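During the no-cost extension, the postdoctoral fellow (Dr. R.K.) reprocessed legacy sequence entries with the updated structure-token encoder. One reprocessed record is reproduced below for audit purposes.
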Amino acid sequence: MSQQYIPLALRKIVKERAKYCCEYCLVCEEDVLLAHHIDHIVAEQHGGETVLENLACACIHCNRNKGPNIASIDLETRQLVPLFHPRTDSWHEHFKLDIAYIQPLTSIARATVRLLQLNQPERIRIRQALIAVGRYPPG
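Re-encoded structure tokens follow.
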């Protein structure tokens, strides 16, 4: 199934709601080279619709790593768990920043951190550089 076109006005609302920051790793769009994507939280192939409640602002890394996935295995419990859902889950209930490292606090967070590769060394280095200039985490 091909991805449905997302109207420009809807894209703008999604990005404004997120304050132009990735809703998974919290990196702001103005701090990276490529514009953030609009992510279908529940992919269209799983019945997700192109509506505001199912869309999130995602950096290219988070969006590509997440793909159409809606769940993954938590390696600690070996259970299939849903991924972090920016519309229904609170970031601070699932994750904690340990300087530039995104510390997972729940099984949902562990699965999300692993699948989205949130703590890949290069991504940590980028967040460290942003911290050094006062650009991360976003206000």
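The chain has a mean pLDDT of 96. The longest strand covers residues 37-40. The remaining legacy entries will be reprocessed before the final report is submitted.
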